[in-house]
Amino acid sequence: xxxxxxxxxxxxxxxxxxxxxxxxxxxxxxxxxxxxxxxxxxxxxxxxxxxxxxxxxxxxxxxxxxxxxxxxxxxxxxxxxxxxxxxxxxxxxxxxxxxxxxxxxxxxxxxxxxxxxxxxxxxxxxxxxxxxxxxxxxxxxxxxxxxxxxxxxxxxxxxxxxxxxxxxxxxxxxxxxxxxxxxxxxxxxxxxxxxxxxxxxxxxxxxxxxxxxxxxxxxxxxxxxxxxxxxxxxxxxxxxxxxxxxxxxxxxxxxxxxxxxxxxxxxxxxxxxxxxxxxxxxxxxxxxxxxxxxxxxxxxxxxxxxxxxxxxxxxxxxxxxxxxxxxxxxxxxxxxxxxxxxxxxxxxxxxxxxxxxxxxxxxxxxxxxxxxxxxxxxxxxxxxxxxxxxx
Length: 391
What we know:
Residues 357-391 are annotated as: Disordered. Helices cover 41% and strands 16% of the residues. By secondary structure, it is α/β, with parallel strands linked by helices. The chain folds into two domains: 8-182 and 365-379, Rossmann fold (3-Layer(aba) Sandwich), CATH 3.40.50; 200-363, Rossmann fold.
């Protein structure tokens, strides 16, 4: 197989939404399409990701497969997983027979069925790992890592993710490569306003979940309001289906604030850039390990200072970016202090954010990412020139 006739790549993904790994998939597909591959992307159902993948150059097929979750540690849930996997295996085998891809890309370690299915078809697999579950039970970490043994190549999004994976599966180190995510920014980004007149507008972008720290943001807002600061908090994101109770809990928490009117639940929205343009400070208050930090990088690309939890791969994502303030995770007082430090040195952080925006755009350029990712995929196809591992 050569560059003139590169063939088909099937990319399997577990979500039709538009959060972290979903957005990275768009850049992966764009990179493969730019290389000349025909790209088929499988999603469990239709959703906002599907038309964007099509615009990036993919054909979208719908096929649901079981996803590895912590709930599988319960015996009844694992039995259901095995049953559903057997049914999906037959469907996936037929799908691969229909498309006859030169390689399969499995985008996240949570859908190992695609790895097994491709192995049965003797199709080389690249696993793209977006997870870092150092706080999860070891049995779950092994379950996420072991399928990588069957893959020709494992691509990870940070050194932190690589360390997390190879702690439980050290034999994967030799086939692992780190490629930092490609993160597109806005076409243009308005500079932060010269003076913080009126309420200081703070923006949270991400899933409304405990691990993303929306509740910590509300606790920090309470502390700042009690200090007499006029702060507005916008929460941009939605809960997972079935976790509506958590959003209700957040709303009750907001209602108990000294000034509840300063909290806005905006739900999910795309694109996110108008919301960054309307804010002064972004926050990424994650409470558990993040493998990378797309949202933190997006804030920098949007020309906004950002307060980021010092946990997982987040510090790596903003390393050397002086407009990012690192604080202890799951600590409302630390988050409030981080926000206050930016407010108290506003002119300095305005200056830093301008320089950091240029550096982040260079470091996380989507085209550079797409080309590097396509190199790795092409390298696992028989007859293609090998691509060396890098870290």
